[in-house]
Every structure is written in C-alpha cells, then in structure tokens.
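Table S2 (text version). Query chain:
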Amino acid sequence: MRAYKRLLKYVTVNTTSHEEVEKTPSGEGEFVLAHLLADEMKSLGMTDVHVDEHAYVYGFLPAASGCEGCRSVGFISHMDTVDDCGGTETRPQLILNYDGKPISLGTSGKTLDPDAFPHLKECRGKTILTTDGTSVLGADDKAGIAEIMTMCERLVREKRPHGRICVCFTPDEEIGHGAVYLDVGAFGADFAYTVDGSAPDEVEYETFNAAAVHLTAHGFSVHPGDAKGRMINAMKVLMEFNGMLPPDEVPEKTEGREGFYHLTGAEGNVSEATADYILRDHDAEIFDRRKQKVQETAEKLNQKYGAGTVDYQIKDQYRNMAEVAARHPEVVEIAKCAIRAVGLTPVSRPVRGGTDGAQLSFRGLPCPNLGTGGYAYHGYYEHAVAEEMDQCVEILLEVVKAIAEK
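Corresponding structure-token output:
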C-alpha cells in the first residue's frame, strides 16, 4: 500500500492534543489511533507490539538472517495533531494529476494558492492531499506514521536485509510531551530518526532551545468612578509587560536562527489576568538572556505596582539537539547518504521548532529528523504530496540498507 493511502485512513481519527489536559494522552482519540496502528503492525508481522498506558505504540522487526550483528535503528512519529483550527473532523481532499492552479478547499471559501505556497508550482501532475478548509490535515505527523508503516511492510514483503528495526508512535508531541514517557531502554535502538519534517530532502538536527512562560497579574478592582490612584488593572499590567519586550523579536519578524518571544494566549479581567509565552532561540546564551529578560521585566512591574503584582513561572521544554548531533556525526551522515541515494541533495536548515528527537537526543538516543512530504503544518492550508511521501519511504529504506551493509 502506498503511504498516502495510509495517511487518508489515519487522518479520519481525531487525535487533537490539548495543552490544558494534564494527563497523557491528552485526547482519547490518540488511544483509538494507537490501537488501530498496533493491529496493523501485528498484521505486518512485527513483534512485541503493544500500547502502553500512555498510548505509546511499540513494535519491532527482528534482524533479518545474516544481519543480527547490525546496529538497531529506531523510527518515531507522533500521532497527535494541533488544536489550532478547531475542527474535530478531518475531511481530506485528494487532487489527482494536479493542474498547477489554486485549489478550492471544500466549501470553506479558502484556497490553496501556489502564489502563497510556491512549492506547489513544482507539483503539476502529482497527487495532492489537502484539507476541506475546516481543520488541519494531520500530515503532521500522520504522514510520518504512514511512511514508517509502509517501510516496514516493504521490508517484510520484499525480504530486504535489515538490522533490528524499532518503531514507536508517540502521543502529545504538539504540546511538548511526546518523548516524556518513551522508554528508551526498552525501545533498544542504538540511534533513531523522527519522521516529522517537511520536504523529502531535509535532514534536521538543529532545533531551538525552548521554554514556556506563564504569567499572572494580580490587579486591584474598584468602581471605575472612584478608581483614581487606587485601581490596578491586571489586563493592562500584562499589556505593559508585553510592551516592554523587544518588539521585533517575535515570530512574524524573525527567521533562520533568530529567536523570539511569542505570546500564545491571554485572558482575564481587572482583578486577575494571565498570559502565556513561549521563548525560543538556537543560541544557548541568548536563550538564557531571554529567560532573564522575562524575570527582570516582571520584577520592574512589581517595583512599580507593588510586590506580587506579577507572578511568573518559566519551564524549560527542550534543548538544541545540535550539540548531541555533533557527537554522533555518522547518524546524520547516514541520512544524508540515503537522501542522495534517491537522487536528492540533502538540505539541513535550523528547525524553528522542536521534535521528539530533541528530547530523546538528550536522553541518550541520537535522533535527527527526516522529512515527510507534508507542508504548511498547523493550519487550514496543510497539504501533502503523494509522490514525495513515496520518496520519503525510499529514503527510510535506504537508511535501513546502509545500516545493514555496515
């Protein structure tokens, strides 16, 4: 089965993760997909297939005859999708023999336009998977799941030589929990690859350093007619906090290795208001200065309005995996050679985000990230290219081949 057909099946399961939910998985749909995938893995002949109490799905292909001495390699993708677009049901569209023109996304009034997404200009004649404009597609990261499953199917069906293959599908990656409960020891891989990128020619091993910030402003509410010199408006205190941050160091004004402060949500009233930020930077020293800026800004407001006016919590989320990749260059080189083997030129750009691989790398499992053939993640315009998904499968097979040959 081609990978895109698996993707069409997987996206019909709602696996939205929810940051406000404290348990893992945060959405019951992740268990639904986990058991569907476990059944499919068993049907492919994988061994030790199981779903644990947190909806992590594990499965293994024992080394083929003659390859027992090869290193074990892992492949990891996440099952959850973002909660950004509000849609609880995904209705994918399949565009055959794409003509290069704008694509109407169902009856939503939205259009997937090549002028806005230039990659589409190279996709004439290919098969495109889109949303109907009411939800995300879920190629992030169900395309990666589909490609790993297709790789495993072909290894078994075509009796290709391979070392031990370790597969894990994780929940709640989109809310930063995807690698938390992955049992690295039981997984047993010497190194691994997350399949959670975009273009097939990508191999990513440099991520942001990341932290989350939660602010609470405590105001003093009195009748507005009698407020002079007395009222402290908690919402305006947080607005003042935001105005004290560097105005150009935000996602919409940065690129490449430039970091940012990103306001992700705010709510409240005169008496109390909260705001959430994420902090990101590739440079560890600058990242630390961003956290210090938050602390200093909050303290300045406390000096102005009174002690305890602004409370803050800063929680580190993940670190830049480049420092781990530098200690294991062969893992990246295997991926680059696999990309070259399918006729592409490998590209390595700094990831303006993070993957499960960032956390896993610092837990002793070197884990670069490979592409999926999906684009425009986290929005209504998310789409995937079937032929590029096929290329991603071939790249995974080349990775396995290179390890078996060593």
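Notes on Table S2: The CA atoms of residues 84 and 378 lie 7 Å apart. The longest strand covers residues 209-218.
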